[in-house]
Write a structure and sequence with these properties.
Elements: H1 50-54, H2 59-68, E1 71-74, E2 82-85, H3 88-96, E3 101-102, H4 131-139, H5 145-165, E4 172-173, H6 174-191, H7 199-208, H8 220-243, H9 251-257, H10 266-297, H11 299-307, H12 312-323, E5 328-333, E6 337-339, E7 342-344, E8 349-353, H13 354-357, H14 394-411, E9 412-417, E10 422-423, E11 432-434, E12 436-441
Helix pairs in contact: 5-6, 5-14, 6-10, 7-8, 7-10, 8-9, 8-10, 10-11, 10-12, 10-14, 12-14
């Protein structure tokens, strides 16, 4: 469907990508011709190869794994050996089975690979019961229904401000101008972070998930550590200051006053801050960009939305399914588990590929590769996870996306995507780094 995007000259250059050596033997060379993903042996193609993600070349591999090998073992990768679970029902079963599958940082956490021994980042999503729920409950008031009602006028005001400032009829980068700016404003509010310094939050989010990306961290591991320690210094000062102030509903105040979180060790504070930054930033901003991109790829759905704007809430769920802004979550087996005639052994790491489950033809009644804004099952997507680890801020993300589209429909006849967007080059955060658009007035 990509050929439906209008190719017209525009004055925005695609950001330069730094050529990089493969992270592991057998990985794709930067810019090299892609193999035929429909025929290459599955064992020869590694799903965590950054080049596959930078070029959006994974869909056929996921389909083949769902059909041919729904529990697939990757023996050799830069994150070690791991199982890939790719069918919807299998992902859901593992996600809710926290007795046999651990999220704890003590077993490796929620991303593939082993954490650095001298730089472990405990966080509540990477904890098992009871510590997980104790810390999760502490921050929940910041995104509770009463707070969403309080946030809605502020989100709408900012969304109007941003959309009223974009250059109508001229090309601009939607990712930076709209998606990043709106989500970073919201993050600064949630943390009660100095508003004029809010782009630091974006930077820390990008650094966290791009340790091996020379475009983000050309200094590699040492730069990554240094910048995250700068993040810790900033938030440790806020954390200690909030302890001396009356309790408020911002995330840092809640952590500073919470019975189970008021004495967090520095690295545990950093872990939770990083979790909240990435969760509040990457997922929402990439869904905001995906919504514009998807409606351009499927113009009949854009027409459907224009004819009936009451579809916006369901469209929001469908975009989050279609995009899947976090491609996977990791679990670690706490005991031997049988599945699909194979044995997941105690200590093995498992990638629950949300991005694949959200396209599983066995579950979705209508073609899951299509954006269908009135899809009846849209809210059943896997993107927020299931069970005790379901995303704590999911309703806030949906609210931001709903308001964005209500305001887009008020002032523009069409947001036109001018070129294929640039994609993130990693298997965890699945998103966009650049997308040129023109907003056409009503």
């Amino acid at each position: 469907m990509a050929d439906t995007l209008t190719k017209i000259p525009h004055n925005l250059e695609r950001p330069k990508i730094t050529p990089r050596a493969p992270l592991h033997p057998g990985y794709l060379e930067f810019g090299a011709p892609l193999p035929d993903m429909s025929t290459i042996p599955l064992d020869e193609m590694n799903l965590v190869d950054p080049e596959i993600w930078r070029r959006g070349a994974y869909w056929e591999l996921f389909k083949r794994m769902r059909d041919e090998d729904p529990l697939h073992w990757t023996e050799d990768s830069f994150v070690g050996g791991f199982w890939s679970v790719t069918r919807y029902e299998d992902v859901m079963k593992i996600d809710i089975d926290h007795k046999r599958f651990s999220s704890s940082w003590e077993h490796g956490g929620i991303v593939l690979g082993e954490p650095m021994e001298d730089f472990e980042l405990p966080m509540f999503i990477a904890m098992d019961e009871p510590r997980h729920s104790e810390q999760r409950k502490t921050v929940q008031p910041a995104v509770a229904p009463n707070m969403l009602k309080e946030f809605e006028p502020l989100i709408r005001q900012r969304t109007k401000q941003i959309l009223d400032q974009v250059p109508v009829g001229e090309p601009f980068d939607w990712v930076d101008t709209v998606s990043i700016e709106l989500t970073t404003m919201m993050l600064a509010t949630l943390f009660d972070f100095p508003f004029e310094q809010r782009r630091k939050l974006t930077r820390w989010s990008d650094v966290t998930t791009n340790r091996e990306n020379p475009d983000i961290c050309p200094g590699g591991e040492e730069q990554w550590k240094q910048e995250l320690l700068e993040c810790l210094t900033a938030f440790m000062g806020m954390y200690e200051q909030r302890k001396q102030e009356p309790l408020k509903n911002d995330l840092i105040s809640l952590l500073a006053h919470g019975e189970k979180t008021k004495n967090l060790a520095p690295m545990e504070l950093l872990g939770n801050v990083i979790l909240l930054i990435v969760g509040g930033n990457d997922t929402t901003r990439n869904s905001m960009t995906a919504s514009v991109y998807a409606l351009n790829k499927f113009p009949e759905e854009y027409a459907k939305l224009k004819a009936d704007p009451s579809l916006i809430p369901n469209m929001v769920s469908e975009v989050i399914r279609w995009q899947t802004p976090l491609a996977f979550m990791r679990r670690t087996a706490l005991e031997d588990v049988e599945m699909h005639g194979k044995t997941i052994k105690k200590g093995d790491q498992i990638a629950m590929w949300y991005v694949s489950g959200n396209r599983d033809e066995r579950f979705w009644e209508e073609d899951p590769n299509q954006l269908i804004i009135d899809r009846k099952q849209a809210r059943n997507h896997l993107s927020f996870g299931f069970g005790i680890h379901r995303c704590v801020g999911n309703r806030l993300g949906e609210l931001q996306l709903r308001i964005l589209w209500e305001e887009i429909m008020e002032r523009f006849s069409h947001v036109e995507v001018l070129d294929e967007p640039s994609l993130t080059s990693g298997a965890f955060v699945k998103g966009y780094t650049w997308m040129p658009v023109i907003c056409h007035p009503k």
